[in-house]
Each structure stands twice: as structure tokens, then as C-alpha cells.
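Action item from last meeting closed. Structure (368 res):
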């Protein structure tokens, strides 16, 4: 290969000194998601990191203003109260300067891996950021790898979790598409929604919620690694802290590199789901009557709980009420925007919850 005989090639070992890092991570001297050359992006973890992709803290630093872009700052719950949660603006300026020094040295935007210990900063390696992003892998001989996952975290895909997912996807040369297949209470639509996993806005446009089934399709030289990293992130609740409303999942749901591409995970049957009241005037007498009539027709016992959110963000669950009880529904004074936890018991519990979720999504009284 390349004119070198295999008999002339010998194995070699690279020995690299390890530093007792207080924190470490990756700094891009340009914003790899928006191509903004006036911003640097940073993924930082405690110690040497080594955690699940997407679990590090994410920052965007505007070097012209010497400020962090607040809406882009994402510190996962597992890093709250750690050294990463207490980094100063001076530290971000120093990290930006490190990335720029590598950029000046090589002449193009760089992606550096760094660590920080008692002796200061260490640059462990640097890569050409633009070449890394723009290289187009040949896919003519490469069949796409596919895997299906269920979104288990209670908040689904919103700005922070979408950014975490895109930040992981952009690390790989392979193209990655995410297709929203189904959600509890919905059949597979005639026109499937799909998004480029590296584009945050496309991900948000899919309106992915807890319980939705997603098909991950990767094509390229590192497709299997990309699926492994993305499915692992989804399994670990997209970087969010455990929540009592999370669905259960098995570690075998994570895509295994080198294993058959057939999905190894069947979405779990939900024990409950959370819905937000869409009606402009809330669930007053008329929609409450429609709701109770729908619940009465179900061959299952459907129960609701109103979720109250305190000023400190703590969630309090109210008293249970049966959804076939008109008076019980009205006594909860369910206003637009209120969240309700709905569960079911009985042989047809899953079908009943599907019907309830569909009722809220397709409710003809949502503006009455």
C-alpha cells in the first residue's frame, strides 16, 4: 500500500505521559455547528473525562465580546457543583487562546484536545477542524448502518438535548439521519419526519417526545461508531439526570459495533406518559365531558395526576383522579400549559394510553 511493502512495516508503541487532570476536553477554534469564526466551542469534563459522548458540559465562547453565549451553555446535571460548573471567564479565554495558537501554527481552524492540571494546560493533540468536517467519505461501497431507539428521558428532544445530540454526530465523518418512526398513541405517518443529526434546528422541527421511536441511519467510514455513540447518548437520557418519569430501557438497546444491524431493542410498553393541556381555555366543562366519555369507552382504568411546579423547579404530583370521572377532572382546574401524568391499569392499558395521548394531540376542543 502506498508503495510500502508490508514486510517493511513494523508495529510501534507511542508512550504518552498522563497528567492528573482537574478537567479536560475539546476546544474548536471555530464554531463547528454554525461555521462562525468569531466563536470557539468547548466540551469539558472533570478529570480525564472518558464519559459518554454528549455528557460533557458544552460552551460557546464569543472572543470579540469576551463572553459565553448563555443560550448555548449546557452543563449536565451530573457536572453540577463540580469544577466544570465553576470555571471562570478567564479560563474560557485561556482555552480559546490555546485553540487559536494551534490555528496560527497550522493555518486553519483546529480541534484540540486538552487537559489542565497543577502544571497548567496541556495540548494532547490537534486536528484540522474544517478538513474533519468537510471531508466527504465515499459511500458507494458502504451500505448504511441502521438502528432503532426509543426516547426514554421525560423531556424528549429540546434545545439542550438536541445540541448534545448534534455535538456527538458532528464528531463523525459519516452522514447520520434520524427518522421519527412512531410515538405512543400514533401510527406510523404516511410521510416520515427526518433530520440531519448534525443540524440542531432540523432535530427540533421533528418535535421528538418521550416514547417516540427513532431510526438512526449512518453511512460512511465510521458509521458503526457513530451509531454506537448516538444510541448510547439516547440510552443515557440524552445527558439528563434521572427522573421518576423516565421510561425504562435495557443496555442492550445500545448499538454494538460489529454486531448485526438488526435492531436489538423493542420499545418498552409505557406505564404512563406526560401530556400538556393544549386548550386555550383549559379543560372546562365541554372538553372535560369529551375526555371522560373517551376514557369511559376504554377497557382499562385510566388515572390522571396534575403536576405542579414550585418556584425552585421541584415538581409536586397532585391527588389521583379517574379520567372517566367528569367531576374529578373539573375539580383539578386544568389550565392551558398544565402537565398531567396519565397512567392505566388493565389488559388493554397500553391501547388505552395510546388513545388518550391521541385525544390530547388531536383534540377538536383545543381552542374552545
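Sequence:
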Amino acid at each position: 500500500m502506498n508503495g510500502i511493502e508490508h514486510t517493511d512495516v513494523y508495529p510501534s508503541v507511542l508512550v504518552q505521559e498522563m497528567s492528573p487532570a482537574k478537567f479536560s476536553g475539546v476546544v474548536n477554534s471555530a464554531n463547528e455547528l454554525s461555521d462562525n469564526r468569531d466563536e470557539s466551542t468547548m466540551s469539558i469534563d472533570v478529570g480525564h473525562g472518558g464519559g459518554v459522548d454528549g455528557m460533557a458540559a458544552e460552551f460557546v465562547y464569543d472572543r470579540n465580546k469576551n463572553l459565553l453565549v448563555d443560550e448555548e451553555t449546557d452543563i449536565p446535571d451530573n457536572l453540577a457543583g463540580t469544577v466544570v460548573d465553576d470555571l471562570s471567564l478567564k479560563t474560557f479565554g485561556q482555552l480559546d487562546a490555546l485553540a487559536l495558537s494551534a490555528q496560527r501554527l497550522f493555518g486553519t481552524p483546529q480541534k484540540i484536545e486538552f487537559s489542565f492540571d497543577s502544571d497548567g494546560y496541556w495540548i494532547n493533540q490537534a486536528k484540522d477542524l474544517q478538513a474533519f468536517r468537510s471531508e466527504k467519505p465515499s459511500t458507494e461501497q458502504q451500505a448504511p448502518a441502521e438502528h432503532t431507539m426509543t426516547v426514554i428521558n421525560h423531556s424528549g428532544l429540546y434545545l439542550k438535548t438536541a445540541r448534545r445530540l448534534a455535538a456527538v454526530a458532528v464528531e463523525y465523518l459519516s452522514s447520520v439521519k434520524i427518522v421519527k418512526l412512531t410515538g405512543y398513541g400514533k401510527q406510523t405517518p404516511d410521510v416520515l419526519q427526518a433530520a440531519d443529526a448534525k443540524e440542531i434546528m432540523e432535530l427540533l422541527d421533528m418535535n421528538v417526545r418521550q416514547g417516540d421511536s427513532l431510526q438512526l441511519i449512518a453511512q460512511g467510514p465510521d458509521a458503526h461508531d457513530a451509531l454506537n455513540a448516538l444510541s448510547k447518548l439516547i440510552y443515557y437520557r440524552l445527558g439528563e439526570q434521572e427522573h421518576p418519569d423516565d421510561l425504562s430501557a435495557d443496555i442492550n438497546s445500545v448499538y454494538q459495533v460489529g454486531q448485526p444491524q438488526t435492531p436489538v431493542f423493542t420499545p418498552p410498553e409505557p406505564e404512563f406518559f406526560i401530556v400538556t393541556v393544549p386548550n386555550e381555555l383549559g379543560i372546562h366543562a365541554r372538553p372535560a365531558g369529551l375526555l371522560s366519555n373517551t376514557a369511559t369507552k376504554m377497557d382499562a382504568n385510566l388515572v390522571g395526576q396534575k403536576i405542579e411546579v414550585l418556584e425552585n423547579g421541584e415538581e409536586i404530583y397532585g391527588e389521583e383522579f379517574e379520567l372517566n370521572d367528569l367531576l374529578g377532572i373539573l375539580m383539578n382546574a386544568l389550565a392551558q400549559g398544565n402537565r398531567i401524568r396519565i397512567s392505566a391499569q388493565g389488559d388493554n392499558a397500553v391501547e388505552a394510553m395510546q388513545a388518550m395521548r391521541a385525544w390530547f394531540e388531536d383534540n377538536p376542543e383545543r381552542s374552545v
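Note appended to the action item: The first helix runs from residue 89 to 106.
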